[in-house]
Design a protein that fits this description.
With about 450 residues, the chain is mainly α. The protein has a single domain, classed as Orthogonal Bundle (Proton glutamate symport protein), CATH 1.10.3860. The protein is built from 20 helices and no strands. The longest helix is centred in the first third of the chain and has 41 residues. The N terminus and C terminus are likely disordered.
């Protein structure tokens, strides 16, 4: 199967997914209007969430073996720790820079548009309980949590960063043993990755239905009227995301040149999936496949992309900055430039431990707000529309990680002009066998 064979099929899937998105909004709006009240709306929406939950479970089923197989085979093909260290340094350089830019844009947008000022909604009591557990968010716990006590447990809970750490150790161990032992295992892992991409192709056929169900559930509960009450906040947030997109794409163009346009076309399918399901995990396998189709070396993708899921959350960063200032403005609390800059630095640290935490960005805001005299209960103001905002920040996370991975591959000279799918024979399943032969 060549790239020419798979491209039209991918285009059809993107089209069907877009149709599912539009139909989901339409059906959700109709059901919301017919529902007798919030409880009935939630009951109707629960019928749709069954489909979405099944789809997300199937996606999560793929992630752990896919991450393990691609990282271990990639590390083994790098051959030495210096190459891995260089890739990690380049990736972290991009991640830190993107984090600073994202947080700064969030603060600028919040100060420019003042979304919380003059809010015509009742404010929650400052002492109200939010239901979010934020006490465990600290640097010490995050650092220790990175290292798994059991790889089985890490895979069972899809702790991507823990799987990454174990896979790096395993990959280095594999590259250090004799070739007669390592080569069969590397080939086995490459075979596992190919199988998981085939499984991904099968699961992705359900994507249009899952997108339809996800959007129908959200709109059935929220209705389209919620856009009026929170219009300024939603509009300013998406305006900030648009500016962030332009900066990310501009950075991608500076590094990749005109091919960045092709990369954006390829990332369109996983981005639509991420937007409609508000889940970065749902887009992970498809993003790996599209980066491989673009020509990014599987060993770079296998290392940088999982790392980005914990350290490169551009959309989430912007949201945290804007949500914090939204709360301050809603309660009439003035924050000076120094306080905002300090809050930015605190969020850079605390946000690195949020991957896999339910409603992770809200948790970071709830943990950070009290440090600066803001009521954590202000989170209750935006919890109702969090799904709408989550869709935007999730799709931005996918875009940022896709561009970051391609940029690192370009810097490393690990990107081809034709794409791995032509060389490997199936979408997204690049091989490290050439590297083995070269080493031999």
């Amino acid at each position: 199967m060549t790239h020419a064979d798979t491209a039209p099929r991918s285009g059809r899937l993107t089209l069907y997914t877009g149709i599912g998105l539009a139909l989901g909004i339409l059906v959700g709006a109709v059901l919301h209007g017919q529902a007798a009240g919030p409880e009935e709306a939630k009951a109707l929406a629960s019928n749709f969430t069954i489909v979405t939950d099944i789809f997300l479970r199937l996606i999560k089923m793929i992630i752990a073996p896919l991450v393990f197989a691609t990282i271990v085979a990639g590390i083994a093909s790098f051959g030495d720790a210096r190459s891995v260290g260089r890739v990690a340094a380049l990736a972290m350089g991009w991640f830190v820079t993107a984090s600073v830019v994202s947080l700064s844009l969030g603060l600028i947008a919040a100060n420019l548009f003042q979304p919380g000022a003059g809010l015509n909604l009742p404010l929650p009591d400052a002492g109200a309980q939010t239901g979010l557990k934020a006490a465990s968010l600290n640097l010490r716990d995050f650092i220790t949590h990175v290292f798994p006590t059991s790889i089985v447990s890490a895979m069972a809970t899809n702790e991507v960063l823990q799987i990454l750490v174990f896979s790096v150790f395993f990959g280095f161990g594999l590259s250090a043993i004799e070739r007669r032992y390592s080569e069969p295992m590397i080939l086995l892992l490459e075979g596992l990755a190919r199988v998981m991409f085939k499984v991904t192709d099968a699961v992705m056929k359900l994507a249009p239905l899952a997108v339809f169900a996800a959007m129908a559930a959200v709109v059935t509960v929220q209705g389209l009227g919620v856009l009026a009450d929170y219009g300024r906040f939603i509009a300013s947030f998406y305006a900030g995301l648009s500016a962030l997109w332009l900066l990310l794409i501009a950075a991608g163009f500076m590094i990749l040149g005109r091919p960045v346009v092709r990369l954006l076309r390829l990332l369109r399918a996983p981005m639509i999936l991420a937007f409609s399901t508000a889940s970065s995990e749902s887009a992970f396998p498809r993003t790996v496949e599209m980066l491989s189709r673009f020509g990014v070396s599987p060993r770079v993708t296998g290392f940088v992309l999982p790392l980005g899921y914990s350290f490169n959350l551009d959309g989430s960063m912007m949201y945290q900055a804007m949500a914090s200032l939204f709360i301050a403005q809603a309660y009439g609390i003035h924050m000076g430039f120094a306080e905002q800059a300090t809050m930015l630095l605190v969020m850079m640290v605390t946000s690195k431990g949020i991957a896999g935490v339910p409603r992770a960005s809200l948790v970071v805001v709830a943990a950070t707000a009290p440090m600066f005299g803001l009521p954590a209960a202000g989170i209750l103001l935006i919890m109702g529309i969090d799904q709408i905002l989550d869709m935007g920040r999730t799709v931005t996370n996918v875009l940022g990680n896709g561009l970051a991975t391609a940029a690192v591959a370009k810097w490393q000279g690990e990107i081809s002009e034709t794409g791995e799918d032509e060389a490997a024979g199936i979408p997204g399943a690049g091989s490290t066998a050439p590297a083995l032969k070269k080493a031999a």
